[in-house]
Design brief:
single chain, 320 residues, alpha/beta, Rossmann fold, Zinc Finger, Delta Prime, domain 3, five-stranded parallel beta sheet, 15 helices, 8% strand, elongated
């Protein structure tokens, strides 16, 4: 088997066993945080179901090529709008009707339904009916962020495939392969901020807003490392203009402080954070983290943005 996916050994083993034994379930539920790769792995699994090569999914046989070009006649992908009740019953009814028609090219039909947590009640009940009495040679692949977000009766009829964030070394490897023109320093910084979620890491390397927010978070950390109150005020000044941007920066900063605390306790080195870690005590890092979390809470309670930034400017340096 040749699934190209990072980490998640247990999930890959379940899928590989299904292919190797030929005992496919009628439904699989891929769940995990946004950006963790649920949709990508589900599509690879669909490709493996159709594959006629030896090293499944081979990527070279005709069915694999059709999947890679998104033209396989027995594969349909729906959903993914990410808004509540955006997955309508008419879409599920169309799938139910189509599922009873024999496959065009191979021995199976595969339906990838993204964001089943956004199905309307009627759509979910309609899907449940087809899962209760599934047609032969049909496989449903469902994705959602959490099992608890889906009807328990739907979950009970699926093989659960939980997708976890990867380790930082795995994340660095993935980002290097997926963004080969990016420097190691940029990739390392992205891996420190994305919580092991590769999709989020790629956003940090490509989305201008994400790049600006992450750079600002590192600049604030560098100013704290200097122990200079004025430097902290200057580093915080970009936060006064946009509430979403400010919250994004503070969440990144909170992640960096958490990493620094772990490194300080475990006495390990983290590229880009070593100077800060060496200069700070565990107590000071904890105080900084608490101050940042308090400010995030103030923003979530709709406090005035400039007052929040002013409060942070006044309190954060004294956490040092």
């Amino acid at each position: 088997m040749s699934f190209h996916f990072y980490g998640n050994t247990k999930a890959l083993q379940v899928l590989q066993q299904s292919i190797q034994t030929g005992h496919l379930s009628h439904a699989y539920l891929f769940y995990g945080p946004a950006g963790v790769g649920k949709q990508a792995l589900a599509k690879q699994f669909a490709q493996a179901i159709f594959c006629q090569g030896e090293n499944i999914p081979c990527g070279h046989c005709i069915p694999c090529q059709k999947m890679l070009k998104n033209i396989h006649p027995d594969f349909q992908e729906l959903g993914g709008q990410n808004t509540k009740n955006s997955f309508h019953v008419k879409e599920v009814r169309a799938i139910r009707s189509d599922a009873y028609i024999r496959p065009n090219d191979g021995e199976a039909k595969v339906y990838l339904l993204n964001g089943v947590d956004n199905m309307s009640k009627e759509a979910a009940n309609s899907l449940l009916k087809v899962l209760e009495e599934p047609p032969d040679n049909v496989v449903f692949l469902l994705t959602c962020p959490s099992r608890s977000a889906v009807l328990p009766t739907l979950v009970s009829r699926c093989v659960p495939i939980e997708i976890f964030p990867v380790t930082q070394p795995e994340c660095i490897q993935a980002l290097q392969e997926l963004s080969p023109d990016t420097t190691l320093e940029e990739i390392t910084r992205a891996s420190q901020l994305c919580d092991g979620i590769i999709g989020k890491g790629l956003e940090l390397l490509s989305d201008p807003e994400e790049i600006k927010a992450s750079q600002t978070a590192f600049q604030i950390l560098e100013s704290l490392s200097k122990g200079n109150e004025l430097a902290v005020v200057v580093a915080l000044s970009p936060l006064e203009n946009s509430r979403p941007f400010t919250k994004k920066v503070l969440l990144f900063l909170s992640n960096l402080l958490r990493l620094a605390l772990q490194a300080k306790i475990k006495k390990i080195s983290i590229l880009g954070l070593d100077d800060f870690i060496q200069k700070q005590s565990i107590q000071s890092i904890l105080k900084m983290a608490d101050t940042v979390e308090t400010c995030i809470g103030m923003l979530e309670q709709n406090a005035n943005l400039k007052l929040c930034v002013t409060w942070l400017s006044a309190n954060l340096p004294y956490s040092i």
